[in-house]
């Protein structure tokens, strides 16, 4: 917008202030500065650009200096008055801008909280979502990145990931934010390339990072569901000591099935692994041995290396488990029972949390 397009309302009283201040060779009074500041706030709220507004003031200043009817003043006094008036105007403008930014940030934060927890009417939430580039009538996928430390909106890591996504994909209806110290990406459910890129960028900047991806789900409630799936995947990874950097909820559906009947799983754990508590050192070292054995595809040499044991020591432990439980890790049916029980023990924090 050109300076000549600025309404004269935002220059109200400007010429009079220049005349009074420059003629007396004084600085602007408090009331004069406040009047300029108030006009600056109004101009910012109206959406006018500061560059055009300053241009309008300079044009008015030149017109005042060239007015033959005006009382003669020194150039130095005039420039001093112009500088103070424009400075006060810009101060008000910037104050209004800062307030607008804070209000926008508060509105964004409130929207994100409502979006991820489903605490708002779906219709109203969909209307608010359009303001932030999301169309909740479509399916969305939520990915969550977690690191060793927490992150807040505006931190270096979230800004780097957001800028990388914007530079790569432009306006694709993607929202990058933070929640509870984690990085969160909400993307259209049919754009796996966006989620894959987010995961790669997050792992590059989040120290000790791991990314979990929920399944694509429709509607506003689908965002909540996908977000919760991603959080559950992170929790599973911690409980099961999974080392995969990118976890997908679709690949972990067996675990909710296993824990759906908690009492049945607890019975399986106690009946299968309970006898291990009689071993010297308790059950935990032997459960750790079984976990490493199963995680390495029942390859004794690899499991021994993971546990920093000799193959002979590992074999002794497996034999000890067989004697105590009556189930043989080398026998296919017994192996399935033992592996399921070990998974249940890790999910239920047994024997650390007895039941």
TrEMBL record:
InterPro entries: CdaR-like_regulators, CdaR_GGDEF, PucR_C-HTH_dom, PucR_C-HTH_sf
Domain of life of the organism encoding this protein: Bacteria
Transmembrane segments: none
PucR C-terminal helix-turn-helix domain boundaries: 286-342
Domain CdaR GGDEF-like: from-to ranges: 117-236
Signal peptide range in chain numbering: none
Family: Belongs to the CdaR family.
PANTHER family associated with the record: CARBOHYDRATE DIACID REGULATOR, DNA-BINDING TRANSCRIPTIONAL ACTIVATOR ADER
Protein name: PucR C-terminal helix-turn-helix domain-containing protein
Organism: Streptomyces aurantiacus JA 4570
């Amino acid at each position: 917008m050109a300076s000549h397009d600025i309404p004269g309302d935002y220059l109200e009283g400007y010429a009079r202030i220049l005349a009074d201040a420059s003629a007396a060779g004084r600085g602007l009074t408090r009331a004069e500065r406040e009047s300029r500041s108030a006009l600056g706030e109004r101009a910012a709220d109206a959406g006018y650009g500061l560059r055009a507004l300053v241009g309008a003031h300079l044009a008015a200043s030149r017109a005042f200096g060239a007015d033959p009817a005006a009382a003669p003043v020194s150039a130095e006094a005039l420039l001093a008055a112009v500088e103070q008036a424009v400075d006060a105007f810009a101060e008000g403008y910037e104050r209004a801008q800062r307030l607008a930014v804070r209000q926008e940030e508060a509105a964004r934060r409130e929207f994100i909280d409502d979006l991820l927890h489903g605490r708002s009417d779906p219709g109203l939430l969909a209307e608010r979502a359009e303001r932030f580039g999301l169309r909740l009538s479509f399916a969305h996928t939520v990915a969550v990145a977690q690191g060793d430390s927490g992150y807040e909106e505006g931190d270096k890591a979230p800004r780097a990931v957001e800028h990388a996504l914007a530079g790569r994909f432009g306006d694709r209806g993607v929202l990058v934010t933070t929640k509870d110290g984690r990085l969160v990406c909400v993307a259209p459910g049919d754009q796996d390339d966006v989620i894959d890129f987010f995961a790669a960028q997050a792992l590059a900047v989040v120290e000790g990072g791991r990314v979990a991806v929920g399944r694509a789900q429709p509607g506003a409630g689908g965002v909540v569901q996908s977000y919760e799936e991603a959080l559950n995947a992170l929790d599973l990874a911690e409980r099961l000591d999974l080392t995969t950097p990118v976890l997908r909820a679709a690949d972990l559906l067996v675990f909710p099935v296993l824990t759906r009947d908690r009492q049945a799983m607890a019975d399986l754990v106690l009946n299968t692994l309970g006898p291990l508590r009689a071993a010297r050192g308790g059950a935990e070292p032997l459960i750790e041995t079984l976990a490493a054995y199963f995680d390495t595809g029942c390859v004794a040499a690899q499991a021994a290396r993971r546990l920093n044991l000799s193959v002979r020591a590992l074999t002794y432990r497996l034999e000890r488990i067989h004697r105590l439980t009556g189930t043989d890790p080398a026998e296919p049916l017994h192996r399935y029972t033992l592996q399921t029980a070990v998974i249940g023990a890790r999910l239920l924090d047994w024997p650390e949390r007895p039941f």
